[in-house]
Write the structure tokens for this entry.
Amino acid sequence: MIEIDHVSKSYNKGAVRAVDDLILTVLPGEIFGFLGPNGAGKTTTIKMIVGILKPDSGTIRIAGLDNRTEALRCKTMTAYVPDEPEIYERLKGIEYLNFMGDVYGVSGGERRSRIEHWLEAFELSRAVADPIQTYSHGMRQKIILTAALMVKPRVLVLDEPMVGLDPRSSHLLKEAMREHCDGGGTLFFSTHIMEVAERLCDRLGIIHKGRLAAYGTMAELRDQAKDKASLENIFLELTES
Amino acid sequence: MSPTAALVKAALNSNFGWSVVRHRLFVQKRDRWMVPLIALAVVGVVPTLVLYVRLLGAVFDMLKSLGQEKALLTLAVLAGQLTILVFGLFYLIATFYFSRDLEYLVALPLKPSQIMLSKFAVVLINEYLTMAPFILPALIVYGFKKDGGLEYWLIMPLAYILLPVIPLAAAGLVVVGMMRLVNIGKKKDLLIIIGSLVLIAAALFLQFGLSRAAGTSGLDTQKIIAMIASPDGLVQSIGHRFPPAIWATRFLHDGLITASGLSAFALFAGLSILLFGGLMAGAQRLFFGGLVGLSERSGVRVRGGKTLPIKFSSGRHPVKAIFLREVRLMNRTPIFLLNGVLGVLMVPVILALTLSTGKPGDDSADILRLMTSAKPVTGVLVTTMFMIVCATLSGVASSSFSREGRKFWVSKVIPVDYRQQVLAKFLHSMAIALLGIGGATAVLVFRFRLAAGQWLPSLALALPVTAILTFLNLAVDLARPLLDWISPQKAMKQNLNVLIAMLLDLGFLFLYGFAFVALGKSGLGLAAVLGILAAIGLGLACLAYTLVLQFALQRYPSIEA
């Protein structure tokens, strides 16, 4: 579903190589966890998948479509949640959701039922008519998640989605992620929470200094590592400078 | 380094972005193409500057023949200080209360006056830069023409440094007081806008009051002779309602060694220090009150289980959805609203007031009516230009992408064709431009009493040209959007794109005016001239539409949000 083929991206005219010849594939129905230390290239990779950044070389395909030449079709089937909940503060929560519904072409009836469901789940129903500038960090995160889940995309791309969420919302999100993939959807997400990655992901990738240091199921990662105790140990071993 | 000095240094660095520029130019090696462009823009300004200096020289010579050359200094100081007083208000409100770094600064162990000082320094340095092309030539021309000697050249920079302090500190005091008062209740944004409008109205009233006082229209011959006979006559006449201009003139002219010069300097510097001190003291007491009010939640969240009715839309077209987003974001951000929408509405009013002397028979309304009946082509040209200027010089289109700031990622990920996104932004910018055209038309109809036959052709010509310039301005901002701003003011008024677009607009209008005059002189009838111009306008608008939408397809993917 997501194919990243020899993708590289550098900053400062090549001085900083953020992503270096990355190759990986995420299959339909799979939750893929993307791990790595700060500055390893996780967010850069994610931003390239959703079309915010342009790779220097290589190709990214969503459902077999090149995300640069077939950008619009790729975007129609992808929803993205950034690591920083930077959204239009001067809009009300419901206005933001309606805006996303309009641009993704979500019909009136589906929009209503999905929004009501997620607002209720995230306990945002009472705040949704307020301007987003009055929201806390977690509430902003939840409204962006609500928009992404309302769209019901084939591919969900989430950059550290648990940050700022309360335990209940975090639990609900994990359930939603699983449900999304059980329904045939694909989910690519980055996280620093090893326990979540270990329990939730079908496969994992660990990126270090722009290169893929490890890639596979939890069992495959264990096979590659000396210290097989936990994902945390594997992570620490692979990302030692 | 003391906390105050560190804070001021950080504020200046973050505002003027020298670190960012250095990083982009020398580390990232981006934006290097801007260097020759800026050099070209500077070179382009030189002829205008030479013309301005010559004009100042001529004014000096004329005043000297009357023995009133000092009045040039008074005029320069008065013009500079009043401009700062009026336009500084927007800037002060934005910098003092709408910078995004304020919530971090408030949490640091800093006094309100220290934070205020750092913000004031940013505004002050900006004013020095803004005033430089207008005021410095006047002071320099005076120095050379008067052969002021070493003392003048030593005092002149000091005068320039002190010049903005009085109006800025005075405006700052009013702003701090106003923000403290209005930051109560739920409708803070509305109150801020109303408060700002009241301040602007007061400042405009003051400016027109003073400019009228500076004029000689109300004087009879005897008074004029008496005024010219006194060496300080014109200086006193110009500056009598704003004494700091007289003080500055006196110490610049007399020097600091004379008693009159020294006393004038003491008064000027004393008032500057007094107002600045007052502002710092006011900040200590009122600044946080206003600031905290701003960050308080103004929502109407209902507690206790009752849920507000939610309005679900049912599938708007993406262009309509983006247009609506643009309208909401502009109208609900006070700085955007004040600079964009209200700016557009104010321009015709200010121009109408500026063109009016208030004396019957000597009114520009009569001159315009006379012009349109005697030379219809020139009349239509003037009214068309008036409409276009009122519509396009707001910076709404040329900041359209920049205003999205860090939220630009949304525009990158939504499944909406980039051409549709640009079209929605065009429609929004055009809607605001139409407000400007509407305001200009209202001024032409109600203030200048032009008949429909006179203003309708202008309207027909102004609409396509406004569309062309709106596309042009959108293209400028699309080429290099400023997305990493911390104060909304930076996205609009301090955005270089707005200036670049304005220069390009003026260049286009110059060529359009040239074509207008050339066609007028060609011997063709008025209807034919207007028909040709309308056809050219429509053709160019269609071309601009096609080119900008194609440019969007190329440019959008490269913008890295």
About this structure: Residues 3-295 of chain B form one domain. DSSP finds 23 helices and no strands in chain B. Residues 259-295 of chain B form the longest helix (37 residues). Chain B touches chain A through 47 residues (CB under 8 Å).
